[in-house]
Predict the structure.
Amino acid sequence: MDAVVDSPLTKLLAFLDKLDEHKIWYHLEHIRESVMVLVAIPGQRWEVEFFADGHVEVERFISPGKIEDEDVLSEIIVIGGLTDNELSEKYRTPNT
């Protein structure tokens, strides 16, 4: 019985039931070898990936709370066009 309770699909469905119960917006995607649940709550976006082997990965994106105007929209194109190496160079955190 525990194998059924802890199955990857059961974990995913239980999580979706909780989101529905609390009226939290989400969207499902198939990415890599997982089902990703994109979750939006005020000030945060979460990527929750459920894998066939049962493990779950979570990445959170938290807003600093600063509201900006349309002038920053061009950054999407600039940043989106950078390679991973260029992104690392431009946005790396200095050593402390």
